[in-house]
Amino acid sequence: MGRILAIDFGTKRTGLAVTDPLQIIATPLETVRTFQAIDFLKNYQQTEGIDEFVIGMPKDLMNKDTDSTASVRSFINLLKKNFPDHQIHQVDERFTSKLAMDAMIRGGMKKKDRQKKENVDKLSAAIILQSYLESRL
């Protein structure tokens, strides 16, 4: 059984999170530059194995597309092209950055580390992944 990998897509940076091999626990993995994301995912696939992808879909409070939605859809098409045998699930990503920041504060992370957007991105990906895992129960 391979891992499920979650993506918090951004035009500059993309946060990634993965499950354990049993697909039970979501863990932040890395934040990569978006233009390097597909290469990173290919390398990760070769070493760890990915069964499926989960990607955060940006929507506004009225559940309508945001300015970022088209970019995410383009990235999904790129994923489909590079990983044709993998399922890609879309998960509502509203409030994940806020939840990530709250989790870092509750976890006692220093302010300096909380200000690093890379930390917010990969933790947001973990929240997206955890939401997906809970929806499968």
Automatic annotation (TrEMBL):
It is found in: Cytoplasm. GO terms for molecular function: hydrolase activity, acting on ester bonds; nuclease activity. One of its GO terms (biological process) is rRNA 5'-end processing. Residues 2-100 form the YqgF/RNase H-like domain. It comes from the Bacteria. InterPro entries: RNaseH-like_sf (IPR012337), YqgF (IPR005227), YqgF/RNaseH-like_dom (IPR006641), YqgF/RNaseH-like_dom_sf (IPR037027). Keywords: Cytoplasm, Hydrolase, Nuclease, Ribosome biogenesis. It holds the Pfam family RuvX. The keyword Cytoplasm applies. One of its GO terms (cellular component) is cytosol. Its EC number is 3.1.-.-. SUPFAM superfamilies: Ribonuclease H-like. Belongs to the YqgF HJR family. Could be a nuclease involved in processing of the 5'-end of pre-16S rRNA. This is Putative pre-16S rRNA nuclease. It comes from Reichenbachiella faecimaris. The lineage of its organism: Bacteria, Pseudomonadati, Bacteroidota, Cytophagia, Cytophagales.
